[in-house]
Write a structure and sequence with these properties.
Layout: E1 2-3, H1 9-18, H2 25-35, H3 49-58, E2 59-60, E3 65-71, E4 77-82, E5 88-96, E6 99-103, E7 107-108, E8 126-127, H4 130-144, E9 148-153, H5 163-174, E10 186-190, H6 194-201, E11 208-212, H7 218-224, H8 227-230, H9 233-247, E12 251-257, H10 265-275, E13 280-286, H11 300-312, E14 317-319
Parallel strand pairs: 1-2, 6-9, 9-10, 10-11, 11-12, 12-13, 13-14
Antiparallel strand pairs: 3-4, 4-5, 5-6, 7-8
Helix pairs in contact: 1-2, 4-5, 6-9, 10-11
The structure holds S-adenosyl-L-homocysteine (SAH).
S-adenosyl-L-homocysteine binds near residues 154, 189, 212, 285 and 287.
C-alpha cells in the first residue's frame, strides 16, 4: 500500500474524484496530514466514516524509524533514520537566528562522485520517494519539538538526479494549508545538472537555487567534480542566467575552500570575473576534511584573503561559519556510516 505522504494536492484531487468525492477533500486531507499531523486516519472529524474507510483501504501514513538523535554543542541536531527497506539516511536540524532549518537528504548514496565529498563514497542505491523527504521534516519537527521554517535540500544525494520526487516534496511542504514553508525559505542545491536547472527555472514555486561551483574554471572543476565533463562551467553560467531572467531571484554560489586547489588569489580573481554582473551571492565554505580523502581545509588567512578579494571586486560574498562539526553534521560530513552497501 502506498503512503499518502507521496501525494501532492493535485494527486489527492484526482484520487478523491476517482472515488466520487468532491475535489475539496484534497485540501481537507492536507490540513489533517500536515496541520493537525494526525497519526491515524480515524482522527479525521469532518469526513464520513465510509470516506475514512476508503482512505484506510488505499493508503498508509507511514513513518521513519529514528535510530539515533545527536545534539551538537552549537544546537545543531542530527538524526539517523531507517527506511522501510532497511536503508539509513541522515537529516540535520539547524537553529538559526531566523528560525529552524532542516537539511534534507534526497537519495540513498549519491552518484555524482565529487572527489572531496564523503557522501559520494557510497554509490547511489536508489532515489528517496517523496514521502521519505516529507517524513524527514515531519519527524524532525516532532522529535525536536520545533516548527521548521526553512528547508535546504543539501543532504546526501543530488536533488536534480531525483527531480520529480523532489518537486512533489517541495509542493507538499509549501502548501499553505499544510506545513506552509515559504518558497523563499526553501533552497535546492545542485552540482550543476544543466537541463534540470532550466526546468527548475520554469517551475511555478519561487524556490531558491544554490549551485555547488567550487572552482573558477573547467580545469579545476573537472578534477573535483566529474559532472563538469557533462555540464561545463559555461553551460552552468548560461543556465544560471536563464534562472535569474526567469525568476528574478538571486542565486547562491557555493564555493568550498580547499588548500592549494582552489583557494589562491588568482582563483578568487577568476571567480570574480566569471560571476561579474550576475545576481549571485557567493557562500565561501571552509572545507570539512574527510577521512580517506587527500584534501585539506584552507588556512584561515587564505580564506580571509579570498573573501577580501571578492569583496574588492564587488562580489556579494560571505564566509560561512560551520555548524555541527562535532557530531559529523557539517556540510559534506553526512555519510550514512551505517549504510548497507
Ligand atoms: N548534490 C547537491 C547537494 C548535496 S551536497 C550539491 O552538490 O549541491 C551539499 C553541499 O556540501 C555541496 O555544496 C557540496 O559540494 C558540499 N560539500 C560536500 N562535501 C563537503 C565537505 N567535505 N566540506 C564542505 N562542503 C562539502
Amino acid at each position: 500500500m502506498e503512503s499518502i505522504y507521496n501525494y501532492t494536492e493535485d494527486m489527492l484531487k484526482e484520487y478523491w474524484i476517482s472515488k466520487g468525492e468532491k475535489s475539496f477533500r484534497a485540501p481537507q486531507t492536507i490540513e489533517w496530514l500536515y496541520r493537525h499531523q494526525i497519526t491515524s486516519f480515524d482522527e479525521i472529524t469532518n469526513m464520513k466514516k465510509t470516506v475514512i474507510e476508503e482512505l484506510k483501504k488505499d493508503f498508509t501514513l507511514g513513518t521513519l524509524e529514528c535510530v539515533t538523535h545527536q545534539k551538537s554543542k552549537d544546537g545543531t541536531q542530527k538524526f539517523l533514520f531507517q527506511l522501510e527497506d532497511g536503508n539509513l539516511i541522515e537529516t540535520v536540524l539547524m537553529h538559526q537566528e531566523y528560525g529552524y532549518s532542516v537539511c534534507v537528504t534526497t537519495e540513498v548514496g549519491c552518484n555524482m562522485d565529487c572527489q572531496f565529498c564523503a557522501s559520494g563514497m557510497k554509490k547511489k542505491l536508489r532515489n528517496l520517494e517523496t514521502k521519505e523527504m516529507v517524513l524527514q521534516i515531519l519527524m524532525v519537527a516532532k522529535l525536536a519539538n520545533v516548527r521548521v521554517s526553512h528547508v535546504v535540500v543539501m543532504g546526501i544525494g543530488e536533488p536534480f538526479d531525483n527531480y520529480e520526487n523532489v518537486i512533489s516534496f517541495l509542493k507538499i511542504i509549501n502548501h499553505p494549508l499544510g506545513l506552509e514553508i515559504g518558497a523563499r525559505h526553501i533552497t535546492v542545491s545542485t552540482c550543476g545538472i544543466v537541463p534540470k536547472i532550466i526546468e527548475y527555472s520554469d517551475f511555478d514555486l519561487q524556490v531558491n537555487l544554490a549551485i555547488s561551483l567550487h572552482a573558477p574554471n573547467n580545469k579545476i572543476r573537472n578534477q573535483l567534480m566529474p559532472i563538469n565533463k557533462a555540464y561545463p562551467i559555461e553551460e552552468i553560467i548560461k543556465a544560471i542566467r536563464y534562472y535569474i531572467n526567469k525568476t528574478n531571484r538571486r542565486v547562491t554560489i557555493e564555493y568550498i575552500l580547499i588548500k592549494g586547489i582552489n583557494d589562491s588569489i588568482e582563483c578568487a580573481d577568476e571567480l570574480a570575473t566569471l560571476l561579474h554582473g550576475l545576481n549571485v551571492y557567493v557562500n565561501l565554505i571552509p572545507y570539512n576534511e574527510v577521512v580517506g580523502k587527500p584534501y585539506e581545509r584552507s588556512k584561515k588567512e587564505d580564506m580571509v584573503a579570498f573573501f577580501d578579494w571578492l569583496k574588492k571586486r564587488r562580489i556579494n560574498v560571505q564566509l560561512r561559519k560551520e555548524q555541527g562539526s562535532d557530531i559529523d553534521a557539517a556540510c559534506g560530513q553526512l555519510r550514512s556510516k551505517h549504510m548497507k552497501s
